[in-house]
Each structure stands twice: as C-alpha cells, then as structure tokens.
Amino acid sequence: MTSDTSISVSLRHTLATLAYRAAKTLRGAPTGFENFTAMPGTRTPAQILAHLGDLLDWAAGLADGRNAFHESDPLPWDQEVDRFFVALATFDQRLASAAPLGCPVEKIFAGPIADALTHTGQIAMLRRMAGSPVRGESYFRAEIAAGRVGRDQAAPVREFD
Q1: Which of 11, 70, 119, 154 could form a disulfide with 143 if both were Cys (CB 3.0 to 4.6 A apart)?
Q2: Closest by Cα among 151, 147, 139, 155 to 15
Q3: pLDDT, tens digit (0-9, with 9 covering 90-100), for 98-138
Q4: In CATH, what number is assigned to the domain containing residue 69?
Q5: How many domains in the chain?
Q6: What percent of the chain has pLDDT over 90?
Q7: Are 120 and 22 in contact (CB under 8 A)?
Q8: By residue range, what is the domain housing residue 47?
Q9: Distances from the Cα of 48 to the Cα of 4, 13, 73, 161, angstroms
C-alpha cells in the first residue's frame, strides 16, 4: 500500500540491525544451550528461535498482503539458525523489490519486527543465564548496512564487559 523508498530503506536497516544482533547472540552458543530452561513453563532458546523464523515468514507474507501466522516446531539448532537467516534474507529481498507493500509498514514493524527484536534480546539474556554471556557492545558504532542480513556480519567495533 506504500512504495515509499525511504520507508523501505529504514525497514531494511532495521532488518540488518536484527541480523547483526542475532548473529552475535547466536554465534558461539554452547552445546545444549538450545534446550536451556530458565524456569518451568518458559520457552527454550530453540523455541524462541523457531518463533523468530515464524515471525519473519509472517512479515514476508504481510508484505505480500497475506496475514497468516504459522507456528513451527523447532528444528535442530544449526538448522533453525539457518532458517532464521534465510527467512530474514527472503523478507529483505521482498522489501528491496519495487512491489508495493500489501500491508501498512507500521503494522509490519509493530508486529513481527518489534517482536523479533524483543526475542533476540531474550536469547541474549538466556545466554547470560546459561553461563555463556554475549559481550556488550556499542551498537551505535557497529557497521550495520541495509541488505546485510546473513549470518556473516562485520566484526564488533567496540565491545565491553
């Protein structure tokens, strides 16, 4: 419904930010982390990561005018990590196209994208709780670029403990 290039660029930069933060959070996760439970009844990292993939699939569908959410069972950790980055790239490519969005960008951001950012933070928090914390970083200084949405990301510019 909108084809405003600046909105697409901003949303694509948000996806690149999500990719950067998620790559850092997922990289080097210890064996067994995918099944870590903070307390009974909470999602495991594998369940959260599967949900992230579902959110990105939903976002791509919304961009095409389809509002259908599917909840997936988690795949093995490495496959789920791959699925996340493939879903992110698919959505990014859709946003990079000239096709108008089939849903207001505000709805796409407020729903699946904001939720994905939140869940990435949850995985980072679970890493710390599981005894394998991710180093803090000045994300303001990070080399994040629209379109860079894969597992391979720029090295941190300024990390801290």
Answers
A1: 154
A2: 147
A3: 999 999 999 999 999 999 999 999 999 999 999 999 999 99
A4: 1.20.120.450
A5: 1
A6: 94
A7: yes
A8: 5-160
A9: 32, 22, 10, 25
